[in-house]
Amino acid sequence: MKWVFVLCAMVALSECLVQIPLEKGKTAREFLEEQGLWEDYRQKYPYNPISKFDQRFAVAGEPMTNDADLAYYGVISIGTPPQSFKVIFDTGSSNLWVPSVYCNSPACNNHKRFNPSTSSTYKYNGTPLNIQYGTGSMNGFLAYDTVTVGGLTVTNQIIGLSKSEAPFMQYMRADGILGLAYPRLSASGATPVFDNMMKEDLVSQDLFSVYLSSNSEQGSVVTFGGIDSNHYYGSITWIPLSNELYWQITVDSVTVNGQVVACNGGCQAIVDTGTSMIVGPQSSISSINSYVGASSQNGNSVVNCNNIGQMPDVTFHIHGQEFTLPASAYVRQSQYSGCRTGFSGGGDSLWILGDVFIRHYFAVFSRAQNMVGLARAR
């Protein structure tokens, strides 16, 4: 299967790493900028990343946000014979859902749609599923079918099938979402895919890891059942979770040039592959952006592209270790909107360490130890 790499140790063939390549495709924002539609889109569907982690929806639904900068998608299949879908492997949610043939929203019409009638392993459940977005929602129902992720086949996996989707989804490259957070977060009590992998002994270790390539369209992977040492330098720092709902950890402080500029006295952060930026309270993000020399323009924190080499590092102090981001890691360059930082404001206290952070720090998510492991990405 061309989408899967299986790496096995010579001493024990059972110790296999199942790796699912992630495509780093054109983002919705890039597509809209090319069409000259971005400003209108941004005003109509404001970016609200923290709504995804609103505790009011933590168990009753699966809040998502219209993150137009998400770039990484992997391919899974559902049904017998298999129907393929591009999904975001999202450590900030727990449900698996894809569009269905019963959906006629514009967002469904330009994405792959699952057809239950052609799958011999499909079982109808019918429980309603509602996923709240920052602006709009996905409405659908639950069903069961065989799901294949890499070489791992999960039978009787509960899935969400959409019947309507928020308009902004039509610009996203991914068809749906595969959630990798804890089952307590799952809407309608649906068992997450990775929980079934563990239950069915499909993985040799109860963990998965994520490597996001910075520059190339290829090279990014999600690895189930182990850790590929080719993707990081040095040793892994293991950080205990502060909340076993999301992959939530405690950050001690954020500094620039040795000075605390945010998170003074500690704060809570979620390591989230389903958020493109680093998100924090507006006052804290404004402080960081000010210290690195960014100015606010049309909702972006803009910097001079010629100054990137002279801009300061931003350091996250976590569990006694320093996780430093150079400007080359936190500044993103676009031919349409110039250079802007990857720090975005939102919410009251919670932080999100999204793809800007994970591109620089290889991340391991251990359900066996309830810890996140971080190491400098190669």
From TrEMBL:
InterPro entries: Aspartic_peptidase_A1 (IPR001461), Aspartic_peptidase_AS (IPR001969), Aspartic_peptidase_N (IPR012848), PEPTIDASE_A1 (IPR033121), Peptidase_aspartic_dom_sf (IPR021109). The keyword Protease applies. GO terms for molecular function: aspartic-type endopeptidase activity. The keyword Phosphoprotein does not apply. Shows particularly broad specificity; although bonds involving phenylalanine and leucine are preferred, many others are also cleaved to some extent. This is pepsin A. Disulfide bonds join C103-C108, C263-C267, C305-C339. GO terms for biological process: digestion; proteolysis. Keywords: Aspartyl protease, Digestion, Disulfide bond, Hydrolase, Protease, Signal. Belongs to the peptidase A1 family. Its EC number is 3.4.23.1. Residues 1-16 form the signal peptide. PANTHER family: BETA-SITE APP-CLEAVING ENZYME, ISOFORM A-RELATED (PTHR47966), PEPSIN A-3-RELATED (PTHR47966:SF22). The active site is at D90, D272. Residues 72-375 form the Peptidase A1 domain.
